[in-house]
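Human: You know discrete backbone vocabularies at least as well as I do. Show me how you would write down a chain together with its backbone fold. No explanation is needed for now; the record alone will do.

Assistant:
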Amino acid sequence: MIAANALGFRHPGQSAWLFRDLDFHLERGQTLALLGRNGRGKTTLLKCLAGLLTPVEGTIARDGAVGYVPQAFASPFPYSVFDVVLMGRARHVGLFSTPTAEDRARAREAIAEIGLDAFADRRIDTLSGGERQLALIARALAAQAEILLLDEPASALDFRNQAKLLALLRTLSRERGLTILMTTHDPTHALEIADRAVLLHGGGHAEEGAVADMCAEDRLTALYGLEMRRLEFDAGGRSAAGILPHYGAGYPRL
């Protein structure tokens, strides 16, 4: 479980709030998507929830271990994927102890679950951005995190691998009971796997609610400053929806 109460943040020395009076409550197994234009506070909010930044106002409650997966990761040392994932076991290993056979087994299991078996012995700095981010998700799983905070996990993935990632996140939330919060620039991803969504408009204004309500055309048009269209269609016998920008309606001013 993770909850925010009257949460607010602005950078030191600045009067403009990124978000303010933000409330939400997620139970075990629920997923929340954070949506908004660049610079509106998505990553900042995620870092507050991870404990990496301190909100100016409000409180955060966490019931469970948190795994934070940043958008970009660069290792200063030539660690293998296995080594990076094994680092997720650090909190289970004593101060002067070394990883046990169980720790190594947990790391292998997490790598297999993410589908990175073929990359286990590769240096992480030789992987693509999307592959590195998958390795960090595996590290969070090896740590036995109960709350996953993901910063644009699909941004460096092609369409097929985006679909695989969304399927994985759906499985982690619905079958393993992980609570997931993710930032994304694609509202369709939110519709596909999220239960709730936060719209960060900037200037202190934020909205939170059921994903179907938050991903309505009028709300997203206001959020992005560009006309957005929601398309309903049949996907293999189930009802599905996608959100697309209507570029033909004209381009906004820079």
Summary: The chain is about 30% helix and 30% strand. The two ends are 40 Å apart (CA to CA).
